[in-house]
Amino acid sequence: MKREWTKEDKELAEAGYEHLAQQKAQGQKGGEMKLDNVDVHEHKLSFKDLEAELDTALDAKDPEQSPGLSTDEAKARLSRYGPNILTPPKKKSALRKYWDCLMTMFNILLIIAGILEYILLGVNFKDNFPNTYLGGILIGVAFLNAFIEFYQLQKSEAILASFLAMIPPSCRVVRDGTLMTIPAADLVKGDIVLVRTGDKTPADLVIFASSDLKVDNSSLTGESEPQERFARPDGVQSRPVEAENLLFNSTLVVNGEGWGVVVRTGDHTMIGQIAALTGSETGKKSPLAVEIGRFVMMISAIAIVFAVVFFVVGITTAYKGKGEQTVTFAVSILVAFVPEGLPSVVTLLLSIAAKRMAAQNVLVKDLQGVETLGMYCALCLLTLLATDKTGTLTRNQMTVTNLWSGLRMFSAFQSNNDSEDTEAFTIGAPGMREMVDVAALNSHVKFDRTDLPFEQRKILGDATETGLIRFAGKYIASWDEYQKRHRRVFEIPFNSSNKWALVIMEKAHEHGLLTSYIKGAPERVLAKCSTYLKDGQEVPISEEFRAEYDKAYDYMASRGHRVIACAQKLLKSDIYDASYEFSKTDANYPSSEYCFCGLISLEDPPKHGVREAIGTLRLAGIKVMMVTGDHPKTAEAIARKINLVLGETKESLSKKTGRPIEEIYDDEVDAIVIHGDDIDSLQGWQWDQIFSKNEIVFARTSPQHKLEIVKRAQALGHIVGVTGDGVNDSPALKKADLGIAMNISGSDVSKEAANMILLDDNFASTVKGVAEGRQIFVNLKRSIQYTISHSTPEVIPQLLYVVVPVPLPLSAILILVIDLGFELFVALSFAWDKPETKDGLMRMAPRKPVNDRSITSLKRRALRRTKTLRRDPETNEIVQPTRLSRWMATIKAPFTRKFWEDALETSDNETLVDGKLLSYAYLEAGLIEMAGGLVAYFVVFLKNGFTPGDLRRAQSALSDSPSITYFTKSSPDFTNSRGQVISASKQVNALAQAQSIVYLSIFIIQCFNVFAVKAKFRPPFGKSVIGNYYNFAGILAGACLGMFIIYTPPLHVVFGGTDKLSPLYWLIPAAFGVLLLVWASIRVVLMRKSIEQSRVKDIKGLMMFPTMRTMSMRSKH
């Protein structure tokens, strides 16, 4: 039954895309004035004048024979004019970067608190003298935090610079009459350069020969459509930006090829002269940075609220109007709540991860410190990976396997997979010579050297053409003579829209002098044919032929081979004579009535490790789909080899059961193969149906289709990763949340568009990236969980001090020592944590999974947002709200029902700081630590003669009239409940011991908490939990610091410790530490069911072993 696209579907599909057209229009307007003020004039010169001005030699008729510059002359010009490098954009100064690191919420709170302490010092120097140390430490901590973050940012940028140096841009240039590849930085004025589809223009070039050359100037001019460029022998008298013979540095070649002479390099190029267009640092925050920022603001707000509340309570109860002491007390509450070391910990954790990823041959581009390290967060969040096939999943090493012509199938190399009626290939068989001619003459390959025999030459071209030429070259006696004998008259190169290439050659036959050859996608080529070649004769295409053609096509494609069709047309001299003007613009070339020569299949085997990598990603809950330009049968066959498709499609189920496709319901199949021709007509509900499948293949797609697929997936809430290596992948790579390009086989265009580059072209590095991203998230979460666990044992004793009251269990300065002393060492050590179980993380669903509930929620919100947008009544364009109206809407939002419905809506998402983490830190581990600290506190006081009642009575004396202060050197003697008299010195010693044991209790229990926070899948025991030796190094460093502060007499003036505290008291917090580990073990059991539910179920049929071809190749080494 056909379902109609509802109004809701239509509105939802459009929601979120309206701004794109507006941005495009603004981009075009922005650059117009700047583009007019540049000094480029060489495009106005004729070829002869150009040669004279640049002192070079070019051959417009046969550009491959251009002499170019000599090596010595090029070196001289390079030393004279400098390298072809743009001056980097102006970056923030080191001072500005440090200032940005300092101006974070936590640091600002610390600085304000420190300044307050010094203000109190000015008000009453004698009573507030201890605040000298506290104020200085608070401010010093803020500056130290900023320095650690700043230092790591500088190191991260250095890592990026070193890795970018490993992939310098290169170009093809003619030197000494030989075509060679050199670094683009070595180009000089006068060099002859060849640019092809997928290249990034290395300098400003004047074109002197081209073939269907089109460039993407959008980065420079804002023009959205590719611009055609061709040679103009007499030059053009227009503005440089409108010149049809000029290519600009850094623009992208999206079609055809061209030969040009370098007229400008480096800062003298068009883009070099327009300083504003070279870009500057951006401040876009990653999802991870947003989550951390939200957490920081939440904790800061809680800290400020509690500090104010405690100030009010303190000044009305314990301190009775003593403002200076109350402010110090409020500062201690603020310090207890704020995890001062967290910014440094986050920065260091992510920087350590960056180094690890760099070692895995994964390069994150445009790294501006921590913010773009959110790319690892994107890897952690990834829910859908759309991958190209050729060069990404396969090796991009094409080998001709079969040929079909005249209704006969031939095998080009020995194979056990061919059927019995497949004949061995011979060049003398009918139709084979014509097939070889089409493969050899309709080609755009170049050679690195032409002075070597054909077999020893390196072919410069795409994998398909390279495979065809390697095959055809075996059956051509003299390749160079053969090419010269058949001169090219006209051509239309292959592009991803046409999916065919056409060439007209001087090749004589009995009816004329010219022959037209066409090759490309079989269905496109067959549509241009009316006859087929059989036994050397042209026979009209019949239904019998079409049936045999479908059978042969299916035979080739079902083996995962790429299939190319060949056709020819013998042009008659009475129509196409030597003076005939062929033209592409008005379609003045033969485009129909061709004779179908046959089919050629090429095998491109999967890369090593791809099958296992895709299986691992699928077990990690990431939906992997193939988006390729190949035929659906070829794509499906490859997908079945590499774990991408395991289940039945409607077509395969129909074939297996004999039922018509129309009678098979969608819920009967779990896999789907979509033809690109169907994409444009898909309705909203059909997209939902497609993405509901676990195994998806899109075939015969264009670049526009790939982009549309990414947009549709993102509209459903997917975090989309795209892998690709070709120019046709670049729009999707740019739009994706995480664009991943290949370094070795990837085009300059794809690398330009991607966020991440796999330096070794190993698809399996994506798996390493996902695992690393997830581990980073877990380690960061553990670190935060550990760090904020001590807030409860720091804050609750302060509350008892005011409410009960009892002597202050923990001073503000000791709280600072906890947060920035041993806590910092241990929190950093989590960066080196290994996974808790071997495959635990890679068997869990993504932390923001896309399911029916999330999609429904997202659609409802998007639809509501779309309906609230104001539109111009005449043009129906969206009217952007003013800043004031946005502020007002934000203020009003919490008072609306929808706001709270959205906020309280249940979700499967796992955030960095969620309810479970806060519950553990504040209510579970926090309360155990608090209990351990307070028990030790009261035991120490009891041992020194103070019962809890005595403590309350002594502290309450502060509010008596007259006021009596105990626990100071000048205090009067105190008589306890047993009648014992305790002198002032014993009171001071008792308080020092009690505060010291509270400090040490938090440290000791936190040592146990290091291992307790790791318990998610298993109890906190075993090698995986204690295997991180940096944890023990951090604990040792913290222990040394704690012992030094508590037991060193000179430091007692600042920190209030004592060397009289017996180590036997340490056993109390140690017992509570063991209790914490027991609770962590119980918690694992209690949470096992919810963890099991979020674990990805086993996938039946996954093949987690190498392909046979891979295994045989490995066995040779």
UniProtKB/TrEMBL annotation:
Protein name, per record: Aminophospholipid-transporting P-type ATPase
InterPro entries: ATPase_P-typ_cation-transptr_C, ATPase_P-typ_cation-transptr_N, ATPase_P-typ_cyto_dom_N, ATPase_P-typ_P_site, ATPase_P-typ_TM_dom_sf, ATPase_P-typ_transduc_dom_A_sf, ATPase_P-type_domA, Cation_transp_ATPase_P-type
Main location: membrane
Membrane topology: Multi-pass membrane protein
One Pfam family cited in the UniProt record for this chain: Cation_ATPase_N
Xref: SUPFAM superfamilies: Calcium ATPase, transduction domain A, Calcium ATPase, transmembrane domain M, HAD-like, Metal cation-transporting ATPase, ATP-binding domain N
Transmembrane segments: 98-121, 133-151, 295-315, 327-350, 370-387, 799-832, 920-942, 997-1017, 1029-1047, 1067-1086
Keywords associated with the record: ATP-binding, Cell membrane, Membrane, Nucleotide-binding, Translocase, Transmembrane, Transmembrane helix
Keyword Disulfide bond: no
GO cellular component entries: plasma membrane
Gene3D superfamilies (alphabetical): Calcium-transporting ATPase, cytoplasmic domain N (3.40.1110.10), Calcium-transporting ATPase, cytoplasmic transduction domain A (2.70.150.10), Calcium-transporting ATPase, transmembrane domain (1.20.1110.10), HAD superfamily/HAD-like (3.40.50.1000)
Occurrences of domain Cation-transporting P-type ATPase N-terminal (ranges): 41-122
A GO MF term: P-type sodium:potassium-exchanging transporter activity
Keyword Zinc applies: no
Localization per Swiss-Prot or TrEMBL: Cell membrane
Biological process, per Gene Ontology: intracellular potassium ion homeostasis; intracellular sodium ion homeostasis; potassium ion import across plasma membrane; proton transmembrane transport; sodium ion export across plasma membrane
Top-rank taxon, per record: Eukaryota
